């Protein structure tokens, strides 16, 4: 798809720019200095947001139902153009959105920039996919005297429930996909990040999505439950915990009404396997990125590292060494690598896990974090992978040693988690890599690199089992699940054909 490289990559920001005026040189300023000044100027005051009532949630569904007729009949190119315009608007207001992502989402500059880029990519990618998939009917083969065509249409009202960890990218990705497929949408963002969602909705409306086709409802899980229980919902797209995905499934199944699809992307107990042939420096760098960046608050993040025994001591030491370099603190400080966790509740849950691990496992490393909503990176060594029984959504790494001859047990342990989202492999033996890939049911596998930051259209993202239902976000099959298929078969012999036959006889 068209690429407008207007959101710089973090590295681009360090290139010096020269400013000349009337022959007087002012000295060097970097694009980074400018961006930081713009972001600082744009930093919003976070005013309280009022939650919707269940009645308002019902009213939003009714309004979206009314809006469906017009939006579903809007031409594909018009729908796509609105999403492309939204991407353009996002990029032209990048300082504003970065400031908001930092203030409300606790994102570091690196993470905010990547998220902004991902959000714009989702809009453009789904617009491009939508032009192909919804632009025209597909004519199907059939006998003479019959014409057959297959068309894709919107389902109706889609409810989109999104998480706080990608409050812009996942929010917009879900909404863009549902809209592109011709659905009207009621979006319910995480209760921790309603302001980013509100701004994203305003931007979509400004870009040309009719008010009647897109509605925002803020509130916690109770509002989400009210939305999914509503009889007029035609589909649900959800990213968040496995537990909530199950609850949504139960709600949808209990309704006396149409069978409603759920597209869910949930959690993971994601593993990495590093064998004795892996490059230790690279393992250390990739482990630190995968486990601790974004404060470990990604569903793709590394939780469980299996290291071959022969190299384990050295590897763990190098990983701890790399982790020691991380600066934890204020996300608006450009030197910060790891920002805060999302809220106090998250911090308490993580602190409790750390306390439990301290008594059950061997502590190899504990970083230092400032006062407040911060959790320092920790590295624990477990004697058995089964000690980690749930997804721990923070910067805590669990290491397990294995012997080369027991690789099959490592794969069994991964299978026993029943999740299947991401997997990292560090090895220089092709047979080992292939054998692992062959035996795991994992959605996204990364070999000899880090395992986060799936790129839209490059690494379509999503998993199996406890990790979700698919299809993969940012992939070529995603939009189809938001739509219904309709075939029309016309007996062309009945009217024109018969007439021609009769005419021939006469
Ligand atoms: C999530 O954390 O909810 O690959 C999913 C990545 C991101 C993960 C998004 N696309 O790191």
UniProtKB/TrEMBL annotation:
<keyword id="KW-0678">Repressor</keyword>
<keyword id="KW-0560">Oxidoreductase</keyword>
<keyword id="KW-0520">NAD</keyword>
<dbReference type="GO" id="GO:0004657">
    <property type="term" value="F:proline dehydrogenase activity"/>
</dbReference>
<comment type="similarity">
    <text>In the N-terminal section; belongs to the proline dehydrogenase family.</text>
</comment>
<comment type="pathway">
    <text>Amino-acid degradation; L-proline degradation into L-glutamate; L-glutamate from L-proline: step 2/2.</text>
</comment>
<keyword id="KW-0238">DNA-binding</keyword>
<feature type="domain" description="Aldehyde dehydrogenase">
    <location>
        <begin position="47"/>
        <end position="488"/>
    </location>
</feature>
<keyword id="KW-0274">FAD</keyword>
<keyword id="KW-0642">Proline metabolism</keyword>
<comment type="function">
    <text>Oxidizes proline to glutamate for use as a carbon and nitrogen source.</text>
</comment>
<keyword id="KW-0285">Flavoprotein</keyword>
<keyword id="KW-0805">Transcription regulation</keyword>
<comment type="similarity">
    <text>In the C-terminal section; belongs to the aldehyde dehydrogenase family.</text>
</comment>
<keyword id="KW-0804">Transcription</keyword>
<protein>
    <recommendedName>
        <fullName>Bifunctional protein PutA</fullName>
        <ecNumber>1.5.5.2</ecNumber>
        <ecNumber>1.2.1.88</ecNumber>
    </recommendedName>
</protein>
<comment type="pathway">
    <text>Amino-acid degradation; L-proline degradation into L-glutamate; L-glutamate from L-proline: step 1/2.</text>
</comment>
<dbReference type="GO" id="GO:0003842">
    <property type="term" value="F:L-glutamate gamma-semialdehyde dehydrogenase activity"/>
</dbReference>
């Amino acid at each position: 798809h068209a690429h407008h490289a207007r959101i710089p990559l973090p590295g681009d920001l360090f290139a010096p720019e020269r400013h000349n005026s009337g022959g007087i040189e002012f000295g060097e300023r970097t694009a980074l200095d400018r961006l930081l000044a713009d972001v600082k100027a744009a930093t919003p005051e976070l005013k309280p947001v009022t939650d919707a009532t269940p009645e308002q949630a019902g009213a939003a569904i009714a309004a979206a139902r009314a809006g469906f007729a017009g939006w579903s009949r809007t031409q594909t190119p018009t729908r796509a153009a609105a999403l492309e315009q939204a991407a353009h608007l996002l990029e032209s207001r990048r300082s504003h959105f970065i400031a908001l992502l930092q203030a409300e989402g606790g994102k570091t500059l690196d993470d905010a920039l990547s998220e902004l880029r991902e959000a714009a990519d989702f809009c453009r990618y789904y617009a491009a996919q939508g032009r192909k998939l919804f632009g025209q009917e597909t004519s199907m083969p059939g006998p003479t005297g019959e014409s057959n065509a297959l068309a894709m249409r919107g389902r109706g009202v889609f409810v989109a429930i999104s998480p706080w960890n990608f409050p812009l990218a996942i929010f917009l990705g879900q909404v863009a996909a549902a809209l592109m497929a011709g659905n009207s949408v009621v979006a319910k963002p995480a209760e921790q990040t309603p302001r980013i969602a509100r701004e994203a909705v305003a931007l979509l409306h400004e870009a040309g999505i009719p008010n009647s086709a897109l509605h925002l409802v803020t509130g916690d899980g109770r509002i989400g439950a009210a939305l999914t229980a509503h009889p007029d919902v035609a589909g649900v797209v959800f990213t968040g915990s496995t537990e909530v995905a199950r609850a949504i499934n139960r709600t949808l199944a209990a309704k006396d009404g149409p069978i409603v699809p759920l597209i869910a992307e949930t959690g993971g107990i994601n593993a990495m396997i590093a064998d004795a042939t892996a490059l230790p420096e690279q393992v250390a760098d990739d482990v630190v990125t995968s486990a601790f960046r974004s404060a470990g608050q990604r569903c793709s993040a590394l939780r469980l590292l299996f290291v071959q025994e022969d190299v384990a001591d050295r590897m763990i030491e190098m990983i701890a060494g790399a982790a020691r370099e991380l600066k934890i603190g204020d996300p608006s400080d450009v030197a910060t690598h790891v920002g805060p966790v999302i809220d106090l509740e998250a911090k308490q849950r993580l602190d409790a896990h750390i306390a439990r691990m301290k008594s059950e496992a061997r502590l190899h490393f504990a970083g230092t974090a400032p006062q407040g909503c911060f959790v320092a990176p920790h590295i624990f060594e477990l004697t058995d992978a089964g000690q980690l029984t749930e997804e721990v959504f923070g910067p805590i790494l669990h290491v397990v040693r294995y012997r080369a001859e027991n690789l099959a047990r490592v794969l069994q342990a991964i299978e026993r988690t029943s999740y299947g989202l991401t997997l990292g492999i560090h090895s220089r033996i092709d047979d080992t890599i292939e054998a692992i890939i062959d035996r795991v049911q994992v959605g996204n596998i990364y070999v000899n690199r880090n395992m986060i930051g799936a790129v839209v259209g490059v690494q379509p993202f999503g998993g199996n089992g406890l990790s979700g239902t698919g299809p993969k976000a940012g992939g070529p099959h995603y939009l189809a699940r938001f739509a219904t298929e309709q075939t029309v078969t016309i007996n062309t012999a009945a009217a024109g054909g018969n007439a021609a036959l009769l005419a021939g006889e006469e």
